Amino acid sequence: QTPRSYDPLVLHLEEAADGADALGVALGLKQNTAAAIRADLVALTGSPGSPGLKDRWNSAKTAKTAATAAAQQARTKGKAIASASVGVLKPRLGSQWNSNWQTAGFTSGSLAIPENPLTLLQQLRAYFTANPTHEKSDLGPGISATAAACEAAAQAISNATTSSNNSNTSAGIAKKNFDEGIEAGRARLSGLREELARLISDEDERWYSFGFERPADPETPEVPENLVVTAGANGLYFADWDDSRRAETYRVAVRNAAGDTVAERIVSESETTLSGLPSGTLTVTVTARNPSGGESQPGNAVVITVP
Question: How far apart are CA 134 and CA 89, in angstroms?
């Protein structure tokens, strides 16, 4: 099966490129040469000084997270300035909303501060500009009820929102490009498999040199081996095992002393984190699965004791 996720796909492309380096000329590979395979591989992984599609996607996600947080911080600061302005203006306009508050931008019949106070800050700026004697500075760290403070907070929200929107767009483009790189890598492996099928027999051992199973091999996945379960903090248990040939997914099962299944999950990688397990002596097993070959027998069982 052609891997669908990044890590196994990159590993298979590495094997395929190595196989093409060693055997491609002798076999007469034409379309899926070592150079062609490595071009798709480097597009995904990058090279020293040149980030790949995965690196760009990771960077875009990080930038998006930071920009989202910055936008939220700007809105929080703006709400604090708007709230401080309400406190300053209550002795002048009234302790509760009335028509006088409309001149300060509170036009909805309430003195509540909206989650995004951008337009309210702009209207408060206009009010304080028209009524400079109503301003009050130094109400707290970085907080003032002044036209300048309202303008700065509004501009900060506007700038941060623009940056956040741009980061969302960049992240979307980076994800699209990454997904296309994944599909290109998968298409390369599929093309290589088809080309090899015309050059060598189904029983030929050289299939393994390219990271493929032989077509003559059984379809049932290999039994997962070397399962290790490590206890972590806060009731977490980290399970890790060797990759199984022909496996697309794995079933991780946790059973109690009576043999009842108390936890089960299907994962695509050869590792997972277990949480929320009941107290007692439990047994963890892993089976390998694929759509055409079914499910393997479980590998070695690991017994854990949950406090």
Answer: 7
Question: How far apart, in whole angstroms, are the C-alpha atoms of residue 61 and residue 72?
Answer: 17
Residue 230 has pLDDT above 90, yes or no: yes
| Residues 7, 14: Cα–Cα separation, whole Å | 11
The owner of tokens 């509004």 is 154
> 96: how many CB neighbours lie within 10 A of its CB?
9
| Cα of 25 vs its chain's centroid, Å | 40
Cα separation, 10 vs 3, in Å, equals 9
- Helix, coil or strand: residue 229: strand
| Four-point Cα dihedral 148, 153, 157, 158, nearest 10 | 0
Distance between CA atoms of residues 294 and 22, nearest Å: 33
Instruction: Report in angstroms the alpha-carbon separations of 5 from 107, 185, 275.
Output: 53, 11, 24
Q: Residues 192, 193, 199, 201: what is their CA dihedral angle, to the nearest 10 degrees? A: 160
For the chain, the C-alpha Rg in angstroms (whole number) is 30
- pLDDT one-digit tens code per residue, 86-117: 999 999 999 999 999 999 999 999 999 999 99
Give the DSSP letter of residue 273: E
Query: Do 26 and 17 contact (CB within 8 A), yes or no?
Result: no
Going from the C-alpha of 153 to that of each of 117, 126, 135, 190, 291, the distances in angstroms are: 9, 13, 15, 55, 56
What is the rounded CA–CA span in Å between residue 101 and residue 97?
A: 6
Can you tell me which residue has the tokens 């290589």?
192
Residue 208: is it exposed, middle or buried by C-beta count within 10 angstroms (0-12/13-18/19+)?
A: middle
Secondary structure E strands in 215-260: 228-231, 237-240, 249-255
- CB-based contacts of 214: which residues, under 8 Å, 6+ apart? 202, 203, 204, 205, 207, 208
Predicted confidence (pLDDT) at residue 4 exceeds the cutoff of 90: no
Task: Pull the structure tokens for residue 260.
Answer: 């009842």
